[in-house]
């Protein structure tokens, strides 16, 4: 599924306002800090925190790594 990279660049986590990671394999946008995965359906991200899926600590760590790679940190 294609999601406009410019769109994901402008999206932030609704809770912490931090950067989020686009996981194309699972069609989710992930906030490693809040440990939440926001589902994307029909190219529309569902950024409602109450409907996001919680991540395990391990998953959150993996996504945090990806985030630092994207940002070149
Ligand atoms: Zn967050």
From TrEMBL:
<protein>
    <recommendedName>
        <fullName>UPF0434 protein H5985_07220</fullName>
    </recommendedName>
</protein>
<comment type="similarity">
    <text>Belongs to the UPF0434 family.</text>
</comment>
<dbReference type="InterPro" id="IPR005651">
    <property type="entry name" value="Trm112-like"/>
</dbReference>
<dbReference type="Pfam" id="PF03966">
    <property type="entry name" value="Trm112p"/>
</dbReference>
